[in-house]
């Protein structure tokens, strides 16, 4: 997440956008604004804010339109968003926990070795080498995790875009 000030700014912007949307009854315009805001949030990688925004939007749109078909679309979209958000959050938590546990174990082992081998200088050197290797490995793992997160974000973005497009099409047809 970003700094608190940025969060506040985003909240203000959200509020303003919502007010504007309430004022205008044109569905197309509402959709466009929704899309713009999503894009901005994605660019800033503010997943939590994005989710809040989604919920607010969906609720509002459901209230605004009485069309059954659109309501169905909204429900579907909302569920998909929720699922994606849940997946991303859960995965992140799991990864973090695993990494922490592994690191702790490694540290404990290394400490034990050092205590045992105080007399032998050579052994100490060896231990140091292995420590370096471990650190390198950990760094690599972290990089991989970051890549995974980015890929997930991209996937989510694609899904959202697709759903938005579908909704636009539906509206045009209706």
Q: How much helicity do the residues have?
A: over 70%
Please mark out the parts with pLDDT under 50 across 5 or more consecutive residues, or reply none: none
CA radius of gyration is 24 Å
Number of helices: 5
Shape: globular
Average pLDDT rating: 60
Our measurement of the CA-to-CA distance between the termini, rounded to an integer number of angstroms, reads 39 Å
Structural class category? mainly alpha
Q: β content, as a range? A: under 5%
> Could you state the order of secondary-structure elements as H and E?
HHHHH
Largest sheet: none
Strands, total number:
0
General description of the model:
Residues 91-148 are annotated as: Disordered. The chain crosses the membrane at residues 153-172. Keywords: Membrane, Transmembrane, Transmembrane helix. The structure is a single chain. Helix 2 packs antiparallel against helix 5 and helix 3 packs antiparallel against helix 4 (68-116). The protein has helices spanning 4-23, 27-43, 47-64, 68-116, 121-173. 10% of the residues are buried. The protein has 174 residues and is mainly α. The protein starts with a helix and ends with a helix. It has five helices and no strands.
